[in-house]
Amino acid sequence: MKIAKTSQFKNVEQDKAWFEDWVTKLETLNGKRYQRLQVETSLGKTYVWGLNTNDENLESIVIFPGARTTSLFWDFDNGLNYLGQKFRVFLIETNGLPNLSDGSTPDIKSLDYGEWASEVLTKLNIKRTFIAGASFGGLIAMKLCIVAPSKVKAAFLLNPGCVQSFSLSWKNLYYNLLPIFFPTKKNVSTFLEKAIFCKPNHRLSPKAEELIIDYEMFALTRYKDNTQKPYDMVEELKQVKVDTFLLEGDKDLLFPYQTSVTNAENRIQLLKGVVVFENVGHGIETYDKAIQYIGQQITNYKKPLA
Predict the structure, then answer these.
(1) Total domain count, the chain
(2) For 273-300, what is each residue's pLDDT tens digit?
(3) Which residues contact 65 (CB under 8 A, 6 or more apart)?
(4) Does residue 305 form part of some domain?
(5) Residue 254 lies in a domain
(6) Tens-digit pLDDT profile for residues 63-80
(7) Domain range spanning residue 221?
(8) What is the C-alpha to C-alpha distance for residues 24 and 261, in angstroms, rounded to an integer?
(9) pLDDT per residue as tens digits for the range 3-39
(10) CATH, residue 84
(11) Dihedral of alpha carbons 192, 66, 244, 301, sign
(12) How far is CA 41 from CA 35, 115, 239, in A?
């Protein structure tokens, strides 16, 4: 696999120690401990956080995070409990994002991220699973579905960054660029309030919000992010032959939901469900009713094994 870009922490040892301490704080807040898994892949080391992974009698779900996040965002305030039942949960730390995985990445427009994701499933001994991806993670999910459809039972896309281009509206650009150019806690908080959440309906607890602000400040100031950004996959999406569900927030500034819904309906052949949540921002993976929807769809899923 050809490496296109490499991202990295400014001080690897020191910054990874900070990240581990941040995870410990999240574990304390949630009252749980995540399993630490690590696999060797074509992109180097890939880290995975796990829940119930040793219980092979449980259904599995594999989760891919958005850009400038960690997959642990999905479990702020024990959000994964809203799945409604126990699953083998694999929270993949995508290479090239601010996490413990190595920073090497392939060309974003190739299928190599899909090959990498398939490789991760193989290394984790996951033969067939449900997958979910938020924003950047939605692109990874679709690449995986193209490369290895037999490994995926169904895919859930949450405000995905692969069915339209990043919005160039003045409002979206302002709130996204503000913390990048001026990384202060106040500006990060403004970005989260205006683009990621939609208070009072879509919000985190004060302690979880403090954790996300700390993480964003860390990612903005300590991580040299050279990873390519997601793009509109257009005709590539027509190659997806996997049942797919689209979850959208109607207040998503980054990828406005109307365009995402229209494009998905026109391009994804096996689009099995579309749901738009009112007063929900881009960070839909932290919204309880979105996680509930995923759990319900998996519970009701009737498609026989291939």
Answers:
(1) 1
(2) 999 999 999 999 999 999 999 999 999 8
(3) 71, 73, 74, 91, 92, 93, 94, 97, 99, 133, 134, 136, 137, 285
(4) no
(5) yes
(6) 999 999 999 999 999 999
(7) 5-299
(8) 38
(9) 999 999 999 999 999 999 999 999 999 999 999 999 9
(10) 3.40.50.1820
(11) negative
(12) 19, 10, 25
